[in-house]
Design a protein that fits this description.
The chain is mostly helical. It has two domains: 9-113, no CATH class; 124-243, no CATH class. The chain is 50% helix and 4% strand. The protein contains nine helices and two strands; from the N terminus they run αβαβααααααα. It has a two-stranded antiparallel sheet with strand order 1-2. Helix 5 (124-132) packs across helix 9, helix 6 packs across helix 9 (231-243) and helix 8 packs across helix 9. The chain is elongated and about 70 Å long. It starts with 8 loop residues before the first helix and ends in a 10-residue tail after the last helix. Residues 113-248 form the ABC-three component systems C-terminal domain.
Length: 253
C-alpha cells in the first residue's frame, strides 16, 4: 500500500469551496480530475496583496483575516473571471461579501475537524438501522411532548426548532427505549455515547458556528460513522440529544 499523500494547498482550497466558485457558482474542477494542469481556478487574495491607493483607502477600516496578505485565511479559490474583478475593482461591499464567505469556509472546516479525534459508540449504527426501517404502525400512538426544546431557540431560529420538535415528538420515545434495551442486552453504555455527543457539541460550539451549522455537521458526523445508511435517521438521533440536553444550551432569560 502506498503511503497517503497530503493534499496540496490548491486541493485544500478547492475542497474548502466545494470545487465551485463561491461568487458565481461556476465549477472550478471536476472531482474526478486528477491533474491541475488545465485548471479553471485561481487563488485570490481576499484583502488585496498590493492594494491600489484607492483600495487601501476604501478598505482600511474593514476587518481582515490572517496575520498578513499571504496567510491561508486571506486566500480563496475563485474562477478566473471573478478573480479578475476581485483583484482590480474591489468595492467595500464585494470585499465584505467575500470576507464573510471565507469566514463561513473556515467555520465549516473547524466543524469538520472537530470530529477527527472523537470516538462514537459503534452500536449507534444499530439505532440508525432501526429508525430507517420503521413503519408508521411501529410508532402509532406515540407523541412525546418536546418541552425542553423551546428554551434553546430564539424566535429567528423557528425553522430549526420546528424540524427538531417534529423529530422529538415522533421518535424520542422510540429512540429512548432502544437505548434502554441495548443497555440491558449488550455492552452498550448510554453514558459514554451521551458524553461523546456532548463533547462533539462543545467542540463545534467553540468554533463560533450557529445552531444550524452545528446541527447539520453533527448529523454528518453520525451519518459518516454509520456508513451513510440514512441521514434522516441521523437527524432524528441528534434531535433526541437536543431534547436530552447534550446538544445546545438553554437561553438564559
Amino acid at each position: 500500500m502506498q503511503p497517503r499523500v497530503n493534499p496540496t494547498e490548491a486541493e485544500l482550497r478547492l475542497r474548502e469551496v466545494n470545487y465551485h466558485c463561491p461568487l458565481c457558482g461556476k465549477e472550478l474542477q471536476s472531482r474526478k480530475q486528477k491533474k491541475l494542469s488545465e485548471k479553471k481556478f485561481q487563488i485570490a487574495h481576499i484583502y488585496p496583496n498590493s492594494p491600489t491607493y484607492e483600495q487601501y483607502n476604501i478598505l482600511k477600516a474593514s476587518d481582515r483575516l490572517g496575520k498578513n496578505c499571504e496567510s491561508f485565511e486571506n486566500k480563496i479559490a475563485l474562477c478566473k473571471d471573478c478573480h479578475g474583478t476581485q483583484d482590480f475593482h474591489t468595492t467595500v461591499e464585494e470585499y465584505l461579501n467575500l470576507l464573510e464567505i471565507k469566514k463561513t469556509c473556515l467555520r465549516q472546516t473547524a466543524l469538520h475537524d472537530a470530529t477527527f479525534t472523537l470516538g462514537l459508540e459503534y452500536e449507534i449504527e444499530n439505532v440508525v438501522e432501526k429508525i430507517y426501517g420503521l413503519k408508521e404502525s411501529d410508532i402509532s400512538g406515540i407523541n412525546y411532548n418536546a418541552v425542553a426544546i423551546a428554551d434553546k431557540f430564539i424566535s429567528d431560529e423557528i425553522l430549526l426548532k420546528s424540524k427538531i420538535t417534529g423529530y422529538v415528538m415522533t421518535y424520542f420515545t422510540f429512540i429512548r427505549d432502544l437505548f434502554k434495551n441495548m443497555e440491558t442486552t449488550t455492552t452498550f453504555d448510554f453514558d459514554i455515547l451521551s458524553g461523546q455527543i456532548r463533547a462533539c457539541f462543545i467542540k463545534m460550539d467553540s468554533s463560533g458556528a450557529d445552531k444550524v451549522e452545528i446541527f447539520e455537521n453533527m448529523v454528518d458526523w453520525i451519518n459518516n460513522k454509520t456508513q451513510n445508511i440514512s441521514r434522516i435517521a441521523c437527524e432524528a438521533i441528534i434531535s433526541f440529544f437536543v431534547q436530552h440536553c447534550e446538544v445546545f444550551y438553554e437561553i438564559t432569560k
